[in-house]
Amino acid sequence: MPKRTMRGVVVSSKQDKTAIVRIERTFTHPMLKKIVRRSSRYHAHDEGNVAVEGQTVTIRECAPKSKLKRWELVADEGNDA
Hints:
Mean pLDDT: 93
Number of helices: 0
Strand order of the largest sheet: 1-2-3-5-4
Low-confidence stretches: none
Order of helices and strands: EEEEE
Radius of gyration: 14 Å
Oligomer: single chain
Distance between the termini: 35 Å
């Protein structure tokens, strides 16, 4: 079964080997018919501490590594800060 991947922006990289990534999604509200934007924050495992705040990264689903970490950092597309 393929693992899910998502692209988002690093919000915090202060923790050791952990980056918090914000994933934004947009959808049309069923009644108001307006575009609504929602975001979720995921704790991702960052083995080499390479993530920088403001950077766009890709995260992939993985086996649980700690209480909150179920995602791991896969790639980065450069620094957008």
